[in-house]
């Protein structure tokens, strides 16, 4: 049920005309990974990979969330971002 809506949300988010904040991008990443893979399945990146560690940590914070829950949360988050970052229509 969620798979088609999840895939559509992943495509829609690419259409944003304004860049979300770094925290919003990390949340998107974590929810997408949790929804598509499940709990983190890799080791934490090394100390010099700051971006990799931030992404891994955010994903690891979703540990235990079901893939279905993560997909639904991702869809809702994308909807919110689409509303928040849509271009002003004038």
Automatic annotation (TrEMBL):
GO terms for biological process: lipid storage. Keywords: Lipid-binding. Gene3D superfamilies: 1.20.80.10. InterPro entries: Acyl-CoA-binding_protein, Acyl-CoA-binding_sf, FERM/acyl-CoA-bd_prot_sf. Transmembrane segments: none annotated. PROSITE patterns: ACB_2. One of its GO terms (molecular function) is lipid binding. Residues 2-87 form the ACB domain. Belongs to the ACBP family. This is ACB domain-containing protein. It comes from Trichogramma kaykai. The lineage of its organism: Eukaryota, Metazoa, Ecdysozoa, Arthropoda, Hexapoda.
């Amino acid at each position: 049920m969620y798979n088609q809506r999840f895939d559509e949300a992943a495509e829609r988010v690419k259409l944003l005309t304004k860049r979300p904040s770094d925290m919003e991008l990390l949340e998107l990443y974590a929810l997408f990974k949790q929804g598509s893979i499940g709990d983190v399945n890799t080791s934490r990146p090394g100390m010099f990979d700051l971006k990799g560690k931030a992404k891994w940590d955010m994903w690891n914070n979703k540990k235990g969330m079901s893939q279905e829950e993560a997909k639904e949360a991702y869809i809702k988050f994308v909807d919110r971002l689409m509303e928040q970052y849509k271009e002003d229509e004038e």
